[in-house]
Amino acid sequence: MIKYLSHFQGMKSAFKVLMIVKVPRAENVRADQLSKLATAEELEKNQTVLVDYLDRPTISEVDVMDIDVPHGPNLMTSFINWLRNGILPEDPMEARNLVYTANRF
Predict the structure, then answer these.
(1) CA-CA to 98 of 20 to 30 Å: which in 13, 27, 32, 65?
(2) In this structure, is residue 100 part of a structural domain?
(3) Strand spans (E) along 1-105
(4) How many domains does the chain have?
């Protein structure tokens, strides 16, 4: 939804007048029917569904988040060892702090 909001923000300056109106669900029967259809397992007999195919996506930008995967031990290594394998650090004070911190999340 954030992509659509930013796309809208970019387009709204192209209009002289912009009015946003909330349409109550009771007045938007087609959208309500489509939302129900999306969750229905099968259509009833003689039921017609109009579908509009887009030539291209409305939002053309691809959002990719870069993730740096650490190759050596870091601050999270002991947490991961504890959560995945149940292995605590050898130092009793460090192990106690780790369990205390991990239980808070």
Answers:
(1) 65
(2) yes
(3) none
(4) 1
Full residue range of the structural domain in which residue 86 is found: 75-105
The verdict on residue 26 lying in a domain is no
So what's the pLDDT on residue 47? 66
Q: Residues of 83-104 as b/e, b for ≥16 C-beta within 10 angstroms?
A: eeeeeeeeeeeeeeebeeeeee
Q: Tell me if 6 is assigned to some domain.
A: no
* Cα separation of the two ends of the chain: 28
Q: Strand, coil or helix: what is 2?
A: helix
State the Cα–Cα distance between residues 26 and 94, nearest whole angstrom: 59
Instruction: Inform me whether the pLDDT recorded for 57 exceeds 80.
Output: no
Taking the model in full, what pTM does it have? 0.33
Residue 45 has pLDDT above 70, yes or no: no
Quickly list DSSP for 45-73: TT--------SS-S---------PPPSS-
Position 77 scores a pLDDT of 85
| CA gap 89, 102 in Å, rounded | 13
Distances, alpha carbon 23 to alpha carbons 26, 43, 51, in Å: 8, 26, 21
